[in-house]
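Example record used in the benchmark description.
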Amino acid sequence: MAASATVNVRYMVTDVDDAVAWYTQHLGFKPLSNHAPAFADVTRGALRLLLSGPTSSAGRPMPDGERPGPGGWNRIHLIVEDLEAEVARLQAAGLSFRNEIVTGPGGSQILLVDPSGNLVELFQPTQGR
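Model output (structure tokens):
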């Protein structure tokens, strides 16, 4: 398997156009392709985020009938320089968070919730890390 500089992550979303708008307007992603309502992808640095709607091939039911859907606890992890300022900016834009800022030995983090219920972790490393 060939190595790639791009990291690909797939999120199941309820509305592809809403997801594209949310990630590009609020988190600095750039659109790559859009085949709504089934699929679109956006990029930020080396991250390619695949946004798959209910009509995408990734949204097809499993053999047992279960349908892939958004949400869960897996998430992309974005590094920010000033977490409190970023949280204030996103709250002013009306975005929702799952929790308050928590701090540990490696830094501080908070969970942002996208329009489909997927999580995005915003993380500010401890100085010197």
